[in-house]
Specification:
Elements: H1 16-19, H2 22-29, H3 32-39, H4 64-77, H5 81-90, H6 92-97, H7 110-127, H8 131-147, E1 153-162, H9 170-183, H10 187-203, H11 206-211, H12 218-240, H13 244-256, E2 257-260, E3 263-266, E4 286-290, E5 293-305, E6 315-322, H14 327-341, E7 347-350, H15 357-366, E8 369-372, E9 385-389, E10 392-396, E11 401-407, E12 410-416, H16 417-420, E13 432-434, E14 439-444, H17 446-460, H18 472-480, H19 494-519, H20 525-528, H21 530-564
Parallel strand pairs: 1-7, 7-8
Antiparallel strand pairs: 1-5, 2-3, 4-5, 5-6, 9-10, 10-11, 11-12, 12-14, 13-14
Helix pairs in contact: 4-19, 8-19, 9-10, 9-12, 9-13, 10-12, 12-13, 14-15
Length: 568
């Protein structure tokens, strides 16, 4: 049964403030943790999570705002679950941040917070709604409004996050999946499988088995293990087909092998996609090599405000997806939502990886100017500019400007060769000389036009706005602060990566706001949490009225009892 947490409003008579001096209490109120309580904890709408619990009268849920705030603090501080629970039990500031005034209270256990996340995950799978994303959007909207941050100019960037999985070579992965499958077999089935996989079982692990192999042994090993996979599927498919690990066995067999005339052949490396299984511990992890960085996990894309007039900028959107997706496709799928959340957005700054014809059309539809610091492809040595006017294109080079026409599948612009012959760059020009007609032709498509427009747009804005995109990389570094040197998260899987991304975004925004308030000696907490303060006031008055009614009722009962027994 769902129940809102209002305990933090009604302070305990013997809470932490009872044991602190006025000086220490005043210092506590000025702390980052108390500000977190006012700006984050008090503004979490618990009712959004009521869908996770039964409508029937039953045992109430653990407080949602405490558990969600605890997850945010956990990522902000880089704590483990064990460290988080220890801090909740014994650290005053952590308890203040979570609205816990009574030292004797433990709001949840480790299984409870895991169950809470599983409920959110199951709800997302069933309904396609991420409740933690809704909390991020709600908090961000109130922060943007209270701090009067302009959202018309934003910047976006992506980065790779590696899953907390082991890196397997190809043979190790194939053996590891077989060993995992063997564990779930019944005792009788284990005996049946020994003749097939006994050698792997004797070594105990895929790493130990592969350690003694030479390079010359590998072809025979791959041939043999392909046949083992096929036999395991034939033997146990009907009985274990519904289990997750058997489905992984089938997936790996399809990804790694081909069957030709009853012969099992290993696929060559070039035929393997980046979406093949990387580890049985994370079936959603994919592979990508970005620049010199290899990663097995996911990709996170972030957008944040970037208007130079803003005194503070915060993250407006964050999402995670498979890391084998092109950045341009990620933005194309996300830009509608960003525009919906910040409807005044009219200028988006990105790097060269986000450019595509599909994005050009989408941005044009949403009336957003896409500014790129670089554009994919080689730059022409002779700049040629393309402008669209009244159904035709004007094409210009440093010496002349002409109208284009159609040439079968492409557009064609014809330049006067007499003028071109006087150009010192004619040998490096991308136009084609037509000797019979004594002119030079330039062929281009609509995609070339969009690409050209992207190149020119950065020159159309004021100089102070041309270099604002790189600052988003500092935000990326904030996300990576608690990751190890290999860029690995402490979690696995798409959902847990989502939880990490949204809670980190909330904590980063809060950190910026807290520093801004502290540096400027301002108190935005009143404005940011005005609504929650009003709710608290109503709840306090209501609770006080309830206690007064209870007290009067008790007095009345005592008086009535006394009269009945002639004690007064």
């Amino acid at each position: 049964m769902f129940k809102e947490n209002k305990k933090h409003i009604q302070k305990s008579l013997f809470g932490f403030d009872y044991y602190l001096t006025k000086k220490k209490y005043a210092k506590l109120v000025e702390s980052e943790e108390y500000t977190f309580y006012k700006l984050i904890f008090c503004n979490i709408d618990e009712k959004q999570f009521s869908v996770l619990y039964s409508d029937k009268k039953s045992r109430p849920n653990s407080p949602v705002n405490v558990m969600l705030s605890a997850l945010i603090l956990k990522e902000k501080r880089g704590w483990s679950y064990k460290a988080l629970l220890d801090k909740i039990d014994f650290d005053i500031k952590t308890r203040v941040a979570l609205g816990l005034h009574d030292f004797s209270e433990t709001p949840f256990t480790e299984p409870t917070i895991f169950d809470f996340q599983n409920r959110i995950n199951n709800y997302q799978v069933k309904h396609g709604v991420n409740l933690i994303e809704q909390v991020f959007d709600s908090l961000t909207a109130s922060q943007l409004k209270a701090l009067k941050i302009k959202t018309d100019i934003q910047r976006s960037d992506s980065f790779l996050v590696a899953s907390n999985i082991r890196k397997y070579n190809r043979l190790q992965l194939l053996i590891e999946v077989i060993l995992r499958f063997h564990r779930i077999l019944s005792e009788d089935d284990k005996k049946r499988s020994i003749s097939l996989i006994g050698e792997y079982l004797e070594k105990g692990s895929s790493e130990r088995y592969c350690y003694d192999l030479s390079r010359n042994d590998l072809p025979k090993e791959f041939e043999r293990i392909g046949q083992i996979y096929q036999k395991l599927i034939d033997l146990f498919g009907d009985k274990y087909g519904d289990t997750e690990i058997y489905q992984i066995v089938e997936r790996v067999f399809e990804e790694q092998f081909t069957v030709s005339k009853e012969e099992v052949l290993l696929k060559p490396p070039e035929e393997l996609s980046s979406g093949i299984l990387q580890s049985p511990d994370d079936i959603e992890a994919t592979y990508r090599k970005k620049r010199d960085q290899e990663s097995r996990g996911r990709l996170v894309n972030i957008s944040e405000t970037a208007n130079p007039e803003n005194e503070i900028n915060i993250i407006t959107d964050v999402c995670s997806t498979t890391n084998n997706k092109d950045d341009s496709k990620v933005l194309n799928k996300r830009i509608d939502k960003i525009k919906e959340k910040t409807d005044d957005l009219d200028e988006m700054h990105t790097d060269g990886g986000y450019g595509s014809e599909a994005n050009d059309l989408k941005m044009e539809e949403l009336k957003i100017r896409h500014i790129q610091t670089a554009v994919r492809g080689r730059s022409a040595k002779v700049p040629i500019n393309i402008e669209k006017k009244d159904g035709h294109y004007d094409v210009s080079c440093p010496l002349q400007k002409v109208k284009s026409g159609f040439a079968r599948k492409r557009n064609k612009a014809l330049f006067d060769n007499k003028i071109c012959s006087e150009c010192s760059l004619q040998n490096e020009c991308s136009t084609i000389l037509q000797k019979r007609k004594n002119r030079r032709a330039y062929y281009f498509t609509e995609e070339d036009y969009f690409q050209n427009r992207r190149k020119m747009r950065i020159l159309e804005i004021p100089p102070e706005r041309r270099k604002i995109r790189p600052n988003v990389e500092a935000t990326v570094r904030e996300f990576r602060n608690n990751m190890n040197h290999k860029g690995k998260l402490k979690v696995r899987g798409a959902f847990k990566t989502d939880v990490w991304a949204y809670t980190m975004a909330i904590s980063i925004n809060f950190g910026r706001i807290y520093r801004y308030i502290s540096d400027n000696s301002m108190n935005f907490s009143v404005e940011l949490s005005f609504l929650s303060f009003f709710k608290e006031l109503v709840n306090v008055v209501s609770a006080l009225a309830g206690k007064i009614r209870y007290f009067l009722s008790a007095c009345w009962n005592i008086v009535g009892f006394s009269k009945k027994h002639s004690l007064c």
